[in-house]
Request: fold
Amino acid sequence: MNAVRDNTAFRRLVAALNRMLAHPDLALKGTIRSAVDWLSMRKSRLLGGLGLAGLLVLAGAFVWAAEPEIDVAEPVDPSSLDPDLVEEGARLAAVGNCIACHTVPGGEAFAGGLPLPTPFGTIHSTNITPDPETGIGRWSEAAFRRSLHEGVARNGSHLYPAFPYTHYTLTSDEDVAALYAYLMSRTPVEKTAPENDLVFPLGFRPLLAGWKLLYFDDGRFEPVAAESDDWNRGAYLAEGLGHCSGCHTPRNALGATIDDEHWAGGEAEGWTAYAINESNPAPVPWDTDALAFYLRHGWHPAHGVSRGPMAEVTGNLGRLPDSDIHAIAVYTDAVMGEPDAARQTAADDLLAAVENGRGSGQSADTMAAIPAAEGDRGAALYAGACASCHSAGRPQPYGGLDFRLSTAVHSDNPQNIINVTLYGLPPADGAASPIMPAFHGVLSDDDMVALMSYMRETFTDEPAWEGLEERVADTRSGAHHVSVRPADMIERAPGNLGAEEQPWRQD
Amino acid sequence: MATGLTVNGEAVEARSDPDTPLLYVLRDELGLNGAKYGCGLGQCGSCTVMVDGEAVLSCLMPLLTVEGREVTTVEGLGTLEEPGPMQRAFIAENAAQCGYCIPGMMMRAQATLTANPDAKEVEIRQALEYNLCRCGTHMRILRAIRRAQDEMRNATEEA
Amino acid sequence: MTEHLRLTRRGFVGAAGSGLVVAFSMARADAQAGGEADVTSTEGLPGSLGDISQLDSWIRIDPEGAITVFTGKAELGQGIKTALLLVAAEELGVAPGELEIVSADTALTPDEGYTAASHSMEESGMAIRVAAANVYLLLLEAAAERLGADISELEARDGEIRGPGGTLSYGALAGSLDLAVAARPDVPLRDPSDFSVMGGEMTRIDIPPKVTGQPIFVQDLRPEGMVHARIVRPPSPGATLTAPNADDVETMPGVVTVVRDGNFLAVVAEREWQAIQAMRALEDAAEWETPATLPRQSDIHAWQRDNVSEVGTVDAAGTPEVGEARSVRMTFTRPYTLHGSIGPSCAVAVMEGEDLHVWSHTQGVYPDRAAIAEMLGMEPDRVRVSHVQGSGCYGHNGADDAAADAALVARAVPGRPVRVQWMREQEHAWEPFGPVMSMDVAGQVDEEGRITDWTYDLWSGSHVARPGGANKLLAANHLADPFPFELPDLQIVPPGLGDRNAVPLYQIPNKRILWHFVKPMPMRTSALRALGAHANIFALESFVDELALVAETDPVEFRLRHLQDQRDRDVIERAATEFGWSQDPLPRNEGRGFAFARYKNLAAYCALAMRITVEPETGRVRVHDVVAAVDSGEAVHPDGIRNQTEGGIVQSLSWTLFEEIVFDETRVTSIDWSSYPIMRFGSVPERIDVHVMDRPGDPFLGTGEAAQGPTAAALGNAIRSATGVRMKDLPLSPDRLAATLGV
Reply:
């Protein structure tokens, strides 16, 4: 997979270099982007990084980095806000998943301070409550609009693209106005986010001008006339505020999404964000209805529950009207494309087999007595630790998913099944939500490998995972960082479990 | 087919099938009472014990994973005649009503304080998020754990 | 009626020491009331002593001086044994550590019905207190005779009586005492100013064994030769077993036998894990017909209103007419609610020859014995039921049913003790639920801000379906020759059942309180801690706050305006003072709430204030401080009162914020803690303070359920204060709150 990508990127780089020879001015941007993409594939990140830094400086030199400051505005009187606009803004904020990044678990909504680990260091989300001193209470709507559309703070400094203005720029002025009204209606909280902790020289914000020159295109969404209204609405939401690409499209070494691999799968907070294009690894192909159900409820009978950072996304999308959910599903389904007949037939057979094996559904664990084959450690582990929920036949979302339906077990990348097994699905305090215990204290690395291998072999026709041992070890050690949160909804109230300070993590 | 492990400091050979959850080995084969069946699903924490110092749910821990490891149940924290610091703290605070969940709470707390002797209240609450109490003894459980923490810290300082 | 009852009650209990008896006549709670109604004496003796007056039913002293106290009440984790020991020790003049206590065993202890309704201190506590005072007086009299001294010259200390002529131990006197005599009602009780142990603090006697892993729970019993059984319950309440298909299961490792009787299906194995595996296999193999028999959950309140079998008047005065001006009308609802014991129900039983011995965490060993004997066609005296502690029950949970299960299986494997424990999903799906309720309230205030008119209409089924006969045992309902469940009838009794605390204590000239009784029971319901009081107080006290808003009066002041009883007022003022109640502005989204009730309108008083923050984005409620004041009369064990009240507050917060049984038209689907979430540490309040009122010399008042209602109402009132929105449908879940608040 990597080799293929690598070659593609290399071919693009060569092509771009040729173009540059012909049209030096126009082609420079594309060439540098291609160079970065190519370097992104290199194993030696250090070497690549040095080269990239040079390229950045070069790019930065092309523009005058400073943007003008926009004057402070008088704080908005919340009572002056149009309630309908505020309500619309709440729905749009849900699409944007704003609360997830701009709130520390257990802290006040939108008050910022959440550390976001990136390959370049830690960025802290900012306070976007209307507090005049520490929040955005003195930002005019124009300043707010510029931040979403151009990635520039009110004071004129560039914003890190961890704030996904590369996507938000598609958002219409009307919708920005609604978002602004909504945020101005929130409770002001006086709180300053901690300083970012970034590798040198990325703490120097003018460099971002170079990054933006390479990777940022300012511009509103333009409907595609040939497509349906639903498709266009879905595209507007999913590519814009929804910023699905933020996780589901791979990123290059400079943290920019790789356009040519749109929705081909990426990573978020240590979790794999699966490909949601034609390469989606789900054993049962998604369709519009399944996607809509999943986005609405955070689970689907044939796919299981949303976990990791996606749980917050679905928790938020639950607030949207059916029409918007449907539109996102239509667009996503279109990106995924029609499954071929063989895949669909296999999926239908699989669903029938799973349904036949289901018990009454009254038991929390009607454990089909799965005999532990003598000497098969993985099978014995499965029988003693997993089967009581996962071979029980209790339907989703509270029953353990039948692994024959599991995308995590079918994916080329075992990261998510490792994450869930080691860290579980923490209970959501005061809300119905599936719970799974963490097994990191139960299963040794060898046990993990035996169990994962057994599951891969038993529940899929896919080849054994490569590099499983290393992934398990890195995940447990924290070399591969994973954020784990209780997640049926946006858990932001009393003392909920933070991503970083989990006592069950043995970093 | 015996599995060798250490339970509360004593080496034992467990004869249950290797896929038997540890809970049933402790209760049914070894006659211990501390770990309790609550849900069998890893949702309530009644069966919490320590394995190699870490809190685990024994209802979903197959016996074979415990081979050669050290298991501690509430019986290993002290005795009726000579209760240990965690037990003394729960007794002093009358930190139980029905008491069914309490051994699991104590084991979770013991593991938390072992890993982090200076755990703050919020960290203790977070650690206990996995353990359910239906009687509503939560405030006392927290007080007892803070008391145990003080006693354990003082003992460390004196030593 | 209420006022009359309260005066009567006080007159009655006050009579213990004075000889003045103003008893009101009400027989021991009958089987239907199941111990939720008050039991009172007809003979001038207090509490259970009225029924069982012989002293040696309560206290025995052996020649070595060892004193044993007997109670028919069961330790449910509420600390009753400790409180009863304190009472006995005080009156006997010995240290509590010197006493043994034996509780709830049909072979050993008096029949005190159910341990329920916060009655234990009023019934067993008063009985033991007066019995102990009697025994003490007899000891003094015996010593006076032996020492040739006058009683007034004697001094009792540490189990000895000293006088001018020498010292005699209680043991030495025991031989000359005849305790097989009736207690006298007129013996002097110790004066509170002389108390040495009552009112003090003591380590609860059951806690050290619980925290050191002693075999103290019924789950921990392991009699020699014990086998493990698991029940395969029907997949839905209306299901019929068509084929058990047990052949493959009978040959599984360790399986002793499969027991089938109609829809009752169980498997017995040597080892517990073997029993569980066999049960799972049998569950997969067995075939059932599962018709859809339940109303739709979303229609359940409407369904209740369509299925009223009779309407009872709970209370009425004047001519209530709620007009338009300065009036409020609201409907409140509560869903089916779970007891939700952390340890699923369990029992051990053994059939030896003609005799059956059952160990159970039942709340009533005698009624349970009668029901099991009836189910098995045995004479009750061939059945012994011994109480052993289980996980907390909070009312009628699966304990009696598990005892019946164990008894049925024990009959199939005579000579071998059988331990049955329910699985988690069985506890969630088959325990008798707390009933669904809805309440229409209307009220009006006059221009002076006084409530003039009040109507309250309650829709609820029965809250009491305890055994009561074999028909109240789940397994007996399922037998091939079944004891069909008999639907309980409407009962209106002074302490209230479904209508508990539906009558406001506030002075209202015109009022009418009706119970629209729904006899059909699509799902079995029974007593859940506080019965109707949780939802009734939630509705009533929420509504009082709404009227206070109409009257533009501080809610605490508004309550006091309508209360004359000094103890009502004292507890309210204490809670308000300790909390620092005021109308000072609070930060946005923060609110404070207050509520008050006297449990059953005749037991402990509880007033409670809390401060919360609502997060509108998610609908989450953060509870900061809860401050309660409790008046339990003479406080025997203040820490026990605080423990019960703290627990009641947290449990009620969980019910009120989060809990709702979920079902489709066939079955309950909330069958674990994922699908039926309860409070975890992340949501417990930052601080809970419970202040126990000092009431020396006043009669004991049951406390165990006093906080449930006021907590729910204070929370609702705090949310109202924080958001301006009155939440009327329980639970006040994040989803519901967020949806109600909008943005």
The longest strand of chain B covers residues 3-7. The domain at 78-158 of chain B is CATH 1.10.150.120 (DNA polymerase; domain 1). Chain B is about 35% helix and 15% strand.
